[in-house]
Predict the structure.
Amino acid sequence: MLLPMHRPLRLSLAVAVSLGIVGAAAAAASLVHDPTRLPVGDGKVTTAGPKRGYVYSCQSSFRGGPAVHSGEWIRSDGTWDSTAKPAVSGSVSWPSSFSVGVTGGGVRISGNGLPKHATGTFPVSTSDPAYRYDPNPNPIRAQSLSFALPASPKVAASAACLPQGPIGVMLTGSFLFNALDAAGRDGVAHEVQDACGGHPEMRGAYHYHALSPCASDTKKGHSALAGYALDGFGIYGPRGENGKTLTNADLDACRGHTHAVAFNGKTARVYHYHATAEYPYTLGCFRGTPVR
């Protein structure tokens, strides 16, 4: 739900995940769940291979990012306060078209890339407090979203790097990008997204860099399926078996693990990813073979 426009400080993605989904008790238990002191992921990028807590990036050099400067929510001690981060104002509805079909050995995903939920107003208005930090000039535009993924994806012999651009599709109807902004920094910490954790890139593709607080999830137990990575494996929310809130220490370098979970209409022991409040938020690498 979008907050009133007269309040410049809004709940960001990480605080919504930490407080809304994870819960206050878990947030107090660990730094990575404290929304006022989340570790910034700057510098945690590798091109040499998978590394836990890092983005294994296909890109080795980065251009300047769109954000004008780091906000006051970025601290000198290497943490950031998500409760002090503004969100892009507005409540714009879109004619979303999205479908997921599981037939035979495949999963067919199609749509127009527009989210099922409302977004902020883009381009960002000069009167929006977010403009001071991240004057995103891009309008949201419909996209051609079409992927054919395996219904029973396989773990590859070696992990694959993540590109800049789509690495998955969320059940909200929009793309998932990796954790990095255009400058190779922690995009969730530095960039200013809307209240659903999304914003458009230069071609108008609305996307997230982490789990959207506007995505639906179960109230308890293992988190629900939130989307598909482009290698076919499922992306789930922050809770694992028995409702445990997960951290990087519980997951492999690609930020996944294997156990029985509901996936593609059945319960089976399969590899899957988890999206959490800790950088790199979703995938660290592809554990399967991605479609290109």
